[in-house]
Amino acid sequence: MAFASELRHVIGAAAAIAATAVLVWFGTGLDPAWPLLWFAPLPVLLYAGRAGWWSTAGVAFVGWLIGNLNLWSYMRHSIQMPFGIAIGIAGGFALVFTIAVLLYRTLLRRGAAWYALLVFPAAWVVFEYLLNVAWVNGTGFNLAYTQLAFLPFLQLASITGPWGMSFLLLLFPAAMAISLHLRRHQPGTAVAIGSTAFATILAVLIFGTARLAMPQQSQTMRVGLVASDTYGMAAAGAPAMQVFKAYAAHITALAARGAQVVVLPEKSAVVNHATQPAADAFFGSLSSQTGAAIAVGVTYEAADKTEYNQARLYRPFKPVLTYAKHHLLPPFESEFTPGNTLTTFAVSGANLGVEICKDMDFTPLSRKYGKHEAGLMLVPAIDFDVDRTFHGHMAIMRGVESGFTVARSARRGYLTMSDDRGRIIGQVRSDSAPFATVLVKAPVAHDWTLFLAWGDWFAWLAMAMLVSVLLKLAWLWVPVIREGEHA
Hints:
Blueprint: H1 2-27, H2 34-37, H3 42-48, H4 53-68, H5 72-78, H6 83-109, H7 113-134, H8 151-154, H9 157-160, H10 162-182, H11 187-213, E1 220-227, H12 238-256, E2 261-263, E3 270-272, H13 276-290, E4 293-301, E5 307-314, E6 321-324, E7 344-347, E8 350-354, H14 363-371, E9 376-382, H15 394-402, E10 405-411, E11 414-418, E12 424-429, E13 436-443, H16 450-454, H17 457-486
Parallel strand pairs: 1-2, 2-4, 3-4, 8-9, 9-10
Antiparallel strand pairs: 1-13, 4-5, 5-6, 7-8, 10-11, 11-12
Helix pairs in contact: 1-3, 1-4, 3-4, 3-10, 4-6, 6-7, 7-10, 7-17, 10-11, 12-13, 14-15
């Protein structure tokens, strides 16, 4: 009998690990199947309700760790992350998940079901927020990005940013697990918790559906994107001018079709203090001839040898504007000096802003542009082929959060136009042609959002929830400590 019981325990643990690992593996990663992540924690949470502390910890850690390894090849080979950092990221995320599960288990087993419901998502959101503040990759591994294709749910980002999305993603399986755990002995509480979670998510989806159905403001602009995987970053001088002339033919063609703005990729060529006048004269003349504003991503080498990952903005008969990338990608961009200013300008009455690639992984910079009422963000970029969805589409959420359309032109990725609702309104792969192009009539009127006004309020609310729950947990432990003293 003991052997049979132990066997059932082992089988249950293995099943929970396998189920969560599979759901995390396919529900996150480079091309996530978004519905799966809503259920990914459920097997572990169900197991935690009936298992011991150590076995719960082991199952939670191993299940989430195995699922996280879906990004191992990307971290180690695509972005050349050192082994120690890669295993630290995978293990660190698994450890936080384990802590959240153990907090959930402790509260559930001590009869504090409502606190258990809150602690699991709150602990994770606090972790994601603190990581966003302190880590070079910002929001890069946030669970909310798995839901970019779930447009009604994505609209929640306009209120809470990514934090509310991650919270509900984990609240749902926690509510299911608690309801199933309590269904026999506390059916009233089970129904109340399940109903509350369901009603909350339903309200969010109704809001999202209504927001998607709302007519957008009428101001539009024809925006063109062009990128070539054939050309890498050309050296300064003649090689750079050769690349610029190749791009110029496609800029001219897009302008002939009505493009008012054209965006080229990040680091299209090197421009230094000696070759800058010629490059500026070339694109300045091209902009004046075509009537289109042109954003060109370059590596700029100043006279003092300082290097910048820069976008240069050319407008008809106007001075050149520049923007230096704020958030640099180690180790690939360690030689660059980060920028610290915004660049905005007007085209046909619309406010435009500029960021470069990884800048869009961080919410504060985009919120600053939103507060300047930018209606269109121009984003030169480079991806790593395999992450054209995983990383390339992160910028979509910034548009939803801060109320602008995003025009992102990436080598080795996608040329993507997305509106302030997160809808992709134009997209092609950069390797679909020697010079891939997109031309879209895009909305460019700025949209006000609650996230823009209040910022990370939901992350702070999650912190307050976590503190409240931990105080409750400490209170529940008081009788246990006293019993130990009397014993």
